[in-house]
Amino acid sequence: MILDKKTVKSLITIIFSAILFAWALKHIPFILGVFGTILKPMIPLIIGASLAFVLNIYVKQLERFFAKIEKKKLKRALSIVVALLTLVLILALVLLIVIPEMARTFENIGKMLPGFFEDAKTWLEGLLGSFPMFQDYLNNIDFSLENIGETLMDIIMVGGNSLADFTVSVATSLFSGAMNILLGLIFAIYILFDKENLGRQVRRILYAYLPEKRVDQLLGISVLVSDIFQKFVTGQLTEAVILGMMFVVSMLIFGFPYAVVVGVLVTLTAIIPIVGAFIAMAIGFFLIFVNSPVQALWFLVLFFVLQQIEGDFIYPKVVGNSIGLPALWVLVAVMVGGGLYGILGILLAVPIASVFYVLIKRNVGNRLDDKDIDMRKYK
After folding, report:
1. Are 270 and 344 in contact (CB under 8 A)?
2. From first to last of its 379 residues, what are the pLDDT tens digits of the chain?
3. Residue 121 contacts by C-beta under 8 Å, 6 or more apart in sequence?
4. What are the TM regions of this chain, as residue ranges (predicted)?
């Protein structure tokens, strides 16, 4: 039987795709390395585009606020300046609150450590008093700060060169990161100023080189992606601020120490879906535990109560409904994203999963309509 040209072409495409896929699976590290090399010089542009996307949500609101200004460029410039000043103000307030408070916290911890080690030793002695086999071992442990200091100095002296190399590496990374952020901020300002013109250029290129129907589909998907990401960012930031304020107020009411520090940490880390607040919980528990182990246990109780309230009432209303992704798929997305790409994967997993969820839902609905199947069979 002679195959027609269309069938032969399809078979060749399938075979070539299978070979290419098999080769890609076998050489994943090489492919990731190539992509990393290509993307590394583009990091400032990626940061700028991401920052412009987030700031654009606020800039659009400001442009509506300054609607009486007739000159479009002046209105755009004023909105961008106010958005950037707001960002700087928030960062400054966070630093002014967190850094002095953290300095006082570590100073208090330093004063409490001698008593803490003595109390820990006494508690262990009482706990292990009925086990003579462990008593001799416990007596040989030196809990004094002098011994701990000597041990740390030995580690530092032995690993001095490694420590120096590590310091240089960290300083280089910090400088590189600061430059990338600065360049990214400049890119973000240019993108925000000229976003309509950039959009027109992209559309012209797409329509020039791709079929019209395909471009219409791509633009429709891009609108969906933009809408979901904007709702996710707005909802996640709102939810983080609400949760942080709940922690500050409740900790102040019940007399917990470090209420402001824990509240700010919760606000910052709650931006990361599901797992973020638990990072703040661990830090808050440690800080309070050094001050009072009993209060630290009560802090855990307070944390889980507030998390339950946040999970049952705040997150579904503020974030969940806005992105349209069921709670089960939110959890799956976070687990998969975190397993593949860490914190960045967790941040991007939920909106990306929401986009796929909406697209698949639409496609399934269209296919069911085309098949004209009785709705009672799948409702």
Report:
1. no
2. 455 667 777 778 888 888 887 887 777 777 777 777 777 778 888 888 888 888 888 888 888 888 888 888 888 899 999 988 988 888 887 777 767 766 776 776 666 666 666 666 666 666 656 555 555 555 555 544 445 555 555 555 555 555 556 566 666 777 777 788 888 888 889 998 888 899 899 999 999 998 898 889 888 888 888 888 888 878 778 888 888 888 889 989 988 888 888 888 888 887 776 677 788 888 888 878 877 788 889 999 988 888 888 766 766 666 656 666 776 777 777 778 777 777 667 777 778 888 888 888 888 877 777 777 777 776 6
3. 138, 141, 143
4. 12-35, 41-59, 80-99, 170-193, 240-259, 265-289, 296-315, 327-360
Count of CB atoms situated within 10 Å of the CB of 256 = 22
HEC-encoded secondary structure of the chain? CCCCHHHHHHHHHHHHHHHHHHHHHHCHHHHHHHHHHHHHHHHHHHHHHHHHHHHHHHHHHHHHHCCCCCCHHHHHHHHHHHHHHHHHHHHHHHHHHHHHHHHHHHHHHHHHHHHHHHHHHHHHHHHHCCCHHHHHHHHCCCCCHHHHHHHHHHHHHHCHHHHHHHHHHHHHHHHHHHHHHHHHHHHHHHHHHCHHHHHHHHHHHHHHHCCHHHHHHHHHHHHHHHHHHHHHHHHHHHHHHHHHHHHHHHHHHCCCCCHHHHHHHHHHHCCCCCCHHHHHHHHHHHHHHHHCHHHHHHHHHHHHHHHHHHHHHHHHHHHHHHHCCCHHHHHHHHHHHHHHHHHHHHHHHHHHHHHHHHHHHHHHHHHHHHHCCCHHHCC
pTM over 0.85, yes/no: no
Nearest to 183 by CA among 85, 42, 48: 48
